[in-house]
Design brief:
Shape: globular
Strand order of the largest sheet: 1-10-11-12-3-2-9
Helix content: 10-25%
Structural class: mainly beta
CATH superfamily: CheA-289, Domain 4
CATH topology: OB fold (Dihydrolipoamide Acetyltransferase, E2P)
Number of helices: 1
CATH class: Mainly Beta
Order of helices and strands: EEEEEEEEEEEEH
Number of domains: 1
Mean pLDDT: 88
Low-confidence stretches: 1-12
Largest sheet: 7 strands, mixed
């Protein structure tokens, strides 16, 4: 049974950032997105395992990852990935390539639990939000980072 709850305003998410990857729309708290860079600013030389390159921020290099619509790591960057969103996590930053990024100032809609068929132990999707902006997959930078780390380790095994 799906649990229906009011929009995220009560959960402290008044403004949010939406990262579009093909037909997938990932929703983060606006404060988790530190900066948006052009994908052409990503340095593809000597990428870290699972990443496609590096982006500079605060005088350091941070890994950049390219995910598919199914949230799988991609080695090749599709031409549609024009934006690099730098996400702030507990232990630093990481970039995620996306087709587009936008900010939603007022978020209205209804939250739903992730359907059993979509749930895995490591999914970065916390819940779904049906809004006037379409179906949004609610995530967090830390959960996405843990998921990417899981994918990297699974790829090595």
């Amino acid at each position: 049974m799906s649990m229906l709850r009011p929009a995220l305003a009560g959960a402290g998410m008044n403004a949010a950032a939406v990262l579009k990857i093909n037909g997938l729309s990932l929703l983060f708290q606006q404060g988790e997105v530190r900066t948006l860079e052009s994908a052409s600013d990503v340095d593809g030389r000597e990428p870290m395992a699972g990443s496609v390159g590096w982006v500079n921020y605060l005088r350091q290099r941070w890994p950049v990852y390219c995910l598919s619509e199914q949230l799988e790591l991609q080695d090749e960057v599709p031409s549609s990935r024009r934006t690099c969103a730098l996400l702030a996590m507990d232990n630093g930053y990481a970039g995620v390539l996306c087709d587009d990024a936008s900010i939603i100032k007022q978020l209205a809609g209804h939250r739903h639990e992730v359907p059993t068929a979509m749930k895995t132990a490591v999914t970065p999707i916390q819940e779904l939000l049906a809004s006037e902006h379409g179906l949004l997959c609610v995530s967090s930078a830390n959960q996405l980072a843990a998921y990417i780390e899981y994918l990297i380790h699974a790829k090595k095994a």
